[in-house]
Design a protein that fits this description.
It comes from Nocardioides humilatus. The chain is of the alpha/beta class. The chain is built from 7 helices and 11 strands. The protein has one domain: Rossmann fold (3-Layer(aba) Sandwich). The C terminus is likely disordered.
Length: about 260
């Protein structure tokens, strides 16, 4: 595996150890770096320390049980703290057009920061989803090498139902109108999970069976539905992110 001259930074909101470790390993694998070469900051358990953007090749924000559309008085103290910290970080990230990729919860965080409508109009069960690139998505370097339509894994209670005019829609689906978008040239967000392969989605189904994403009795059926679909393209988003902003990833890192 390759190591960028400057490392990438992973921001995690997960407090469930099994899911957090699996997410960390998956992002590292598909970026093409070792886990040790991908520092992780756990926003779900502690405040975000000052971040010197010049020390990093890029920043990735993963998903978890937070929802940007949760009523403010229903958010935990850790979520309120994390969202305030992320808002301050995104102020600088967007102002500098610094390489950033938010996945799942990350699309809600970036969307809220940029004035998108984030609501519960298109909830999506955990499992496979069909994603289609827009014309802009087909031309975007982050989606280079992906087919116009591909399968990915997702699962969310909220989504972006309307983007602000300055955002560029990159992907859509029947399950969620905005599956990916870009701000400026280098700030990205996806509703689907670019880090998830079959083992990863099965882990998420097991860990979050009692978090309100689906009826726990559906766990076995959801796992079977996930296994019935081949998901191999979304990981290239991470490969492309690493190749564009760090150093080229190893070819092994793109295998699912």
């Amino acid at each position: 595996m390759s190591t960028p001259a400057k490392p990438f930074l992973l921001l995690s909101i997960r407090t469930e150890e099994r899911a957090a470790l699996d997410e960390h390993a998956a992002f590292a694998r598909f970026l093409g770096v070792s886990v040790d070469a991908l520092p992780r900051i756990e926003l779900g358990t502690s405040p975000l320390p000052p971040i010197d953007l010049d020390a990093w090749s890029g920043i990735i924000l993963g998903g978890g049980a937070f929802n940007a559309s949760d009523p403010q008085d229903k958010k935990s103290a850790s979520q309120v703290q994390a969202e305030a910290d992320l808002a301050r970080l995104l102020d600088e990230v967007v102002a500098r057009d610094f390489p950033f990729l938010g996945a799942c919860y990350g699309i809600g965080a970036v969307g809220t920061h940029q004035g998108a409508v984030v609501d519960r109009s298109h909830p999506e069960p955990v499992g496979p989803v069909s994603v289609e690139l827009t014309d802009a998505g087909r031309e975007d370097p982050l989606f280079a090498g992906l087919p116009t339509a591909f399968a990915a894994y997702g699962g969310h209670k909220e989504c972006i139902s309307m983007l602000p005019s300055h955002a560029v829609a990159l992907a859509t689906s029947a399950a969620a109108p905005v599956q990916a978008f870009r701000i400026g040239q280098h700030v990205y967000a996806t509703q689907f999970h670019p880090e998830l392969d079959l083992d990863g989605i099965l882990t998420r189904i097991a860990v979050y069976a009692h978090y309100g994403y689906f009826d726990p009795s559906e766990q076995e059926a959801l796992g079977a539905a996930a296994a019935a679909v081949t998901v191999s393209h979304p990981m290239r988003v991470l490969h492309n992110f690493a190749a564009r902003y760090g150093v080229p990833t190893s070819t092994a890192a793109t295998e699912s």
